[in-house]
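Re: that chain you flagged

S.,

Sorry for the slow reply, it's been a week of failed gels. I finally had a moment to sit down with the sequence you sent. For the record, here it is as I used it:
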Amino acid sequence: MFNAGNLTLQSVKFSGNQALGNAGANATFLDGSRGEAAQGGAVYNEGTLTIVSSSFTNNKTLGGVGGNGIVLSIPPIPGEGGEGGNAEGGALYNASGAT
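Prediction finished late last night. Pasting the structure tokens below so you have them in one place:
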């Protein structure tokens, strides 16, 4: 759930939610690109969020894998794989105010 306004959650159960970052692109010249971040498996908050009598269980985030590098053949120069993306806030990512 994405919130950029005012949101109140009361007596809500969030279970088994996930946020997955996209994989980085494989190299077309040398180095692969970075995987994208994943944030807030159940709730991503950029607004005002109030949570009352609610539960979060088995929620997760998984950042995207980095793209593969390639090897240039003349001269042989190895490319590097891209970095994996960050994973933040398995259940709740709070970028703003919450109570």
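What I noticed first: The longest strand covers residues 6-10.

Talk soon,
D.
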